[in-house]
Each structure stands twice: as structure tokens, then as C-alpha cells.
Amino acid sequence: MPSPTLSGFQVRVTVGVADMAVSNNPGAILTTYSLGSCLGITVYDPYVRVGGLLHIMLPTSELDPIKAKSRPAMFVDSGVALLLQEVAKMRGQKERSIVCVAGGAQFLDSKGFFNIGKRNYESFKEHIQRLGLRLHAEAVGGLVSRTVFFHLETGEVRIKVSGQTNEIVLWKNSTPILTR
Amino acid sequence: MEELDAYLNQVKQLPPAPRTLAKLLTLLGDPDVDAGQIVEMIKNEPALTATVLQRCNAAFFASGEPVSNVAQALTRLGFNQVFRIVAVIVGSQSFSPVQKSYGFEQGDLWRHSVAAALACQKVAESKGDDPNLAFTAGLLHDIGKSVLSEAFEDHYTVLVQETEANQQSLLDVEKSVLHVNHAEIGGRLLERWKFGPELVNAVWYHHAPGEAGEYQRWAAYTYLGNMIAHFMSYSFGHQAFAFRGREEALNIVGITAEDIPAFMISTFEAIQPVETLFNMRK
Fold first, then answer.
1. Active site (annotated) includes residue A38
2. Cα separation of B239 and B222, whole Å?
């Protein structure tokens, strides 16, 4: 039976667009709503149970370096850097981190910059590879809007897709690891 | 047209008509208008006046003495600011029913519409076009969904299946199930509500700007405003991305795809105070 300590309480934290939250409170559920072409990126170190959720909107800070200074969480590169930095401050280690991504939706027959979801995702993949991070699970592309729930107690990442009744478990402790 | 009217006539409850907006836009389009007429018009709606003053006095605008009447609000904030406050309030009334069949939760369609309105305004402004008209077009572009929602309730599984499996757009599915789509229903509704041709066409063709004839610029602004809102996670409901990429919208407006991120960023900045003011965040 769980003891009635503070950690027994659930704390829901909502992460807005171009925003981020990092916590080591095992009761925390980090949530970000209705990702379209944006990406929700989670990083979790299971050893110290520290996790963070980032909601980026654009593929690279080169689009607006000044904005990237005041709002690093808006872009893939500056956002991921900030996320890892904040996780590290709570003793989370990059090498042990479980990384998941969701979002990157695409319009029908979209080309050029209309495929911003794909560009976000490609930039993300390239970026984490450069950082030596492994991607553990993903739910990307398609026409749907996704909401992410990230439970810090277990590291479980759940996705709710509008129109589908059940939440999907994107990652939990026993999820087979993506090899690519 | 007949089909649209037949459809609208059998709908039990139409969204409340945003007549104030139509009238305000007409006044605004008149070069000889004076502030007194605008004040008079807003004052005629006591409930609206109260909300407008309340919002004008909210923390983010507060500077010195609170405003106590519409004339003061106009002097202090300027017509555009007051107009947008009125528009957002009126918009929230039109979108207040939950559009369950599209998968919108309470307030979702309003959130999306406000984001689209600001994005639309940003794009139009950059081309020197009337920002208030563009804002209104973005705000009302999905008003047809409020109308179709009830009828669509039994069909949303078809919507999900058809868009997913057959790569159909939401608009195509509406047409095949209900024989009308939300864009044309919205356009016709605005026409009935006596909005001007720019707005009627902007909404009617917001998924096919190339077909809007002489008003295609307005339809293209609205298309892009809607798209930008989706790109910014103001993207709610089932199969939210089931609409077609229309590159002609860029050509019509005279921008390139590379300009879109800057509009996303400026819209992001513009929406922050509005979200605070109207307590819009989820």
C-alpha cells in the first residue's frame, strides 16, 4: 500500500506550444495538447526518474536566432539542447535517457513548406543522432492531432488521438526498443 | 445555393448571428464614420458593453484609470484593439456549443478560430490589406462546423475511416455524407447575416482559394491563417490535418513558403496576451 506522502499526489503540468517542463516529482504527469505538425519530445532517465517534455513548433533556430534566445523551446535544435540541459541539472544523464517523439502531422498532398511536420521530424532525427541519443518510440505523421501524457513515476508515455477511444501506450518499461 | 438554404432552413439551432461584427465592419469601411457612431452601436448591446469594458480593464491593458465607458475605451485602446476584443467575445458566443462530432471539446473551435484570426490578420497586414476584415475572416472561417456538427454526430466514424483509409479531405467527407460542406455553409450563413462579399467569399472558399474569383486574396489569407493555426498546435478534433495543401494560396497572396515560419512566430507573440486576457489556455 502506498504511503500517503506528497509524492502520492498526482500533479498535472500542462506544457504549451514552444514551452517545456522538467521534473523529478514522481507524481507529475506532464501533458501537452493537440500536437499537429508540432513535435512533443520526451526525455526520461529511469535511474533518477527525471523527465522532461518539450513542445516545439519549428525545425531550426536558424529561422529566427533572436527568438531562439528568448524562446528556445520553439525550435528543435535549441529546444532539445535546453531539455537535455535541464534534465542534466536534475542529475538525469543523456546516455541513460529514453527518448520519445509524437506529432509531425501532415496535410493531404502537401509539398514545400506545407510539409512542416515532416521537416520538424527530420530535423529532430538528425539532431538527436548528432547528440548520440537513441530514439525509443515514436508516433508521427498522419492527419491526426495528438495529445501526450508523460507519467514521471514510470516514464510511461501515452498518446491520445482525437477520434480514437483509447489512449495508446507509446513507451513503457517493457516496450521493445526501436532499432534504427 | 438552394441546397445550402434548404439545409440551413432545416437546422434546428443556428449559431447566434454575429451581427455586431457585420455592422462594425460596415462602419469601419466608411471613411466618413466618426467614433460616436461606433460607440452608439456597441452601447446598444448592454451585455457586450459590460464584457468589453471588463476586458479592456483587465490587467494587461491596465494603465492608470480604468475605463468606464465605450468612448473612453476607444480613445484609450484605439478602434482596432476594441474591435478585436469585440470580435473575440462575439466569436466565443458563436462557437459556444460543443461540436462533438468533429471531436472538439468545449472551447476548442474558439481557440483554433482566434489563432487563425490573428494569423490571417498578420498575413493581410503584411500586404497592406484591412487587418480587421482579415481578422474577422479567420475568426469565422469554421462557423459552418457549428452548423453541421449536429447532423454529423452519427457519422464521425465515417469521417475517421474515410480520411484515414482513402486520404479524403474532411470537406469531401462532409459533402458525400451531408451533401454540403462546412465552408460553403459558413459562406452562405455570412451572406444571410449581411456580411460583405470579401468575408462571404473568404469563408466560402477557405479550402479552395483559387476558386474565389475577384475575392481570392481574401480566401487565400483565410486559407493561410487556418493553416498557420494548425501549424501552431491550435489544431483540434478528429483528423485535424485532413485538408489539402493549396500552394496557390501562396501565389495569390504573393509570399513564399519560406515566409510562413515568420508568420507563425508573429502570431505566437500576438496570441500570448489574448490567451491571458480571455483565459483561453487548456
1. yes
2. 20
